[in-house]
Amino acid sequence: MRRFLALSRSAHGVLDIAMPGFAALLWLGNFPSWPVLALSLGAAIAGYTAIYALNDIVGAPDDREKVAGGLVPGYAVEASVMRYPIAQKLISINGALAWFFLWMAAAIVCIWLLNPRILVILLAAAILEIVYVKLFKVTWWRTLVSGLVKSAGPLAAVYAVVEQPHLPWLAVMLAWLMLWEVGGQNIPADWNDIDEDRRVGGSTIPLVFGPRAASWAILVLLTGTVSLSLVLPVMSPLPLGWQFRIAAAAAGILLLLAPALRLARTLDGRDAARLFDHSSLYPLAMLVIMTAALIVR
Hints:
The chain is mostly helical. It has a single domain (2-295), classed as Farnesyl Diphosphate Synthase (Orthogonal Bundle), CATH 1.10.600. The protein is 76% helix and 0% strand. Helix 4 packs antiparallel against helix 8, helix 9 (167-192) runs antiparallel to helix 11 and helix 12 (242-266) runs antiparallel to helix 13 (269-280). The longest helix has 26 residues, at 167-192. It is globular and about 55 Å long.
């Protein structure tokens, strides 16, 4: 079972699930009913498990090249000894496909019971994940696709609790999510894998532009993330005042900007991995802040 959990990067996926939870509470302004909460949690767990598995299934040929040249020890939460389990022959491709379809079916069932329209978001996320993997050796612009994929869960969560969300504000939330994903997750993860990616001809921002430019891109993107987090309260029917904004800004400074500044000073791969780990905690921090706001409202 550990091999299949590694395939779906479950340690990271559990943290990711906090972001849809935050988005749902923000837009609803209350705790959802127990049936909606149970179905939403089931859809999130199944969806993230399936999409992360799809990444390794589609990327197996490139991953085999990396494994053939020897894996560089990683530092981030995703960099376990069982990275690329298909390429390391820990899981067969048929077993991985069965795992993917099992969780995809579970996600479809939960979403159908919640709001069938959300199935469009799930399908789009799967297609975009395939596109993202296929662009690995083509262009660094694929990082934007990663931002769209990671945003799919929170967007789906909004539609699970709000029948017709205000589209302009939804676009603002999408921008906030993409800035966090690209600056705090995607570029640092690529930095962590820079030696392996260079060996197999990958096209990532740290490889194409170099560590210095990548560190500045991270700083700009995460500054945008923290800035947009101060706008999030307008999306909620709950009157979220200055306390929420101070807490959100503090979470962003501690988990995003502080490690990003350290990375910009050192340009050390271990600090890139440290930023990735801290950024992975950002959704959980935002969920805790939102939950506390609902409790003390």
